[in-house]
Each structure stands twice: as C-alpha cells, then as structure tokens.
Amino acid sequence: MLLLGINAGMFMRDAKARCPHLIVFPYDFGAYEEVADQFYNILHKHCQKVQAVSCDEAFLDIGDCSDIDPESFAFMIRKEIVETTQCTASAGISSNMLMARLATKSAKPNGQCFIPPEKVESFLEDLPIIALPGIGHALGVKLESRRLQTCGQLWKISKEALHEDFGVKIGDMLWSYSRGIDKRKVGIPKETKSVAAEVNWGVRFRTIMDCEHFLVNLSKEISSRLRECGMVARTINLKVQSLCFVVILLICQNRNCCLHLHTGKKEKNGIQRTCKIHGLW
C-alpha cells in the first residue's frame, strides 16, 4: 500500500484518487469487539500483567516467571490466537517495552523476533531514528536537517547538546530511546484526563436535521462512556473538520523480558478482521 502512497489516517477520497481500484471493506464493529474479547481473554488466561494498547495490541510482563521461556511462550500465545480468532499474530520479545515494540516490526507479518540485551546495541546502531516511537514528521525533518539519521549517529551527541537543540523532554527521549533505554512499567496506565467519541469516515450531512441527529447520538455515546468511567465533565470541546469529521471531547478530571504481539489480517464473511498484541516479560 505504501508503494501507492496510501497510508493510515488518509482520507478515503485521497486514497481512491491514488488507487482507483482500491477495495474498501465495510466496518463490522461487532466482529471487532468479538475478536478483541477473545484476544484479551487469551492474554489474561496466561499472564497477570497485561497492558492494553488498543483493541488488538497489548504488552505482557512475565518477568516474575523465571521458569518461562519467552520465545516458547510467545509461540504458544500466537498459536492460540490464530486458532481462536483466525487472525495471525506477530510477537516482539525483548527486555523492555520499547525494544519489544521495535522487535515486532521485524517480526511482521506472522512471525516473532527476540532481541536479547546483548544484541540491543547492534540492532539499534543502523536503525533509522524515525523508526523509534514518538518521532513525528516535524521532529524527523529537524533531525534530518542536522544530518542525524540513525540511532548510532545519535550516540555521538551528548545529552546536553540534545537538550539545547530539542528541549529537555525530547532530548531525553532521543538519548534514551536511541540506546534502547525505556523505564516504563507494564500495567501502569496514565491517568485518564478526557473521554472522547469521534467518527471520521462515512459521515454525510444533507440537512441541519442530519447534523442535529448525529450530534445527539454522539453526545449520548459520550454520556454513556462517562457513566462507565464514573466521571463528570467540566468542559465540552466540539471539533468539526472538512465537513465530514466531527469530534466531541469532554475533559475530566526483577528480570525483564518484553513480548510484543501484533496480529495480521484475515477475511471472514467478506469482512477484513485484524488483531494485535503486545507483551512484556
């Protein structure tokens, strides 16, 4: 898809303009929910420390289980996922969440990759900096302007120099991530500061009544999510973009071995279904 210039987050009209014969599968949220439930049931059955990333992606931490072989464990999980959901899965295994995620990229599609601590340096040396999580387009351009393209090149830059060029927060991130350092712990989610609902595909308004009907239903969804969280909103933000993108946002108050699993795609009943998994040991 990337060869055609099509990527995630692109408007459908732009994707079809670049690829007129693009086949678009309809949404099947019921199927997504079914597979996500099966996916997480499998993870929680085999691991106590599970951190959800999305409906098809999670981190697992089995660092306290010294008798478990990470690669065998990952293979077992992937096998059970495909047998239960008909979705293949890829797994990245390493000493922390960052390296596990990077390992998963090497494992796709439908494979697994283990990066032990002694191989982290060789894995990262020639890795493009833009392959690291948290490196957006603007930061990538800024790094390129300084002729910094690989993690190995970043090693030659002091932390103080990175602070001066990119600020303390981003400088620390670049210095640590380029060396495979990630001190985040699995299972410690960030405090929820907002509850949102959005629809960015297939929304077409022909009359004011259509808009009102859509906003009422979207508001009901937000209200339902707030009740589930036991929260009360103090601010409401409404964002409208390009006449077809609407968002309502309510702002509310030992041994480490990381496994990252990412499932592939399979058509079932004409619907393209996907599933991902991340894990930490």
UniProtKB/TrEMBL annotation:
Instruction: Tell me the protein's name.
Output: DNA repair protein REV1
Q: Which top-level enzyme class is recorded in the Swiss-Prot or TrEMBL entry?
A: transferase
Report whether Repeat shows up as a keyword of the record.
no
Entry keyword annotation includes Signal: no
Cellular component annotations (GO), alphabetically ordered: nucleus
- Which molecular function terms from Gene Ontology are attached? damaged DNA binding; deoxycytidyl transferase activity; DNA-directed DNA polymerase activity
Enzyme Commission number(s) of this protein? 2.7.7.-
Q: Which residues form the UmuC domain?
A: 4-136
- GO BP terms: DNA repair; error-free translesion synthesis; error-prone translesion synthesis
Family designation: Belongs to the DNA polymerase type-Y family.
Name the PANTHER family for this protein: DNA REPAIR PROTEIN REV1
Q: What does the UniProt keyword field contain?
A: DNA synthesis, Nucleotidyltransferase, Transferase
Xref: SUPFAM superfamilies: DNA/RNA polymerases, Lesion bypass DNA polymerase (Y-family), little finger domain
InterPro entries linked:
DNA/RNA_pol_sf, DNA_pol_Y-fam_lit_finger_sf, DNA_pol_Y-fam_little_finger, IMS_HHH_1, Rev_trsase/Diguanyl_cyclase, UmuC
User: From what superkingdom does this record's organism come?
Assistant: Eukaryota
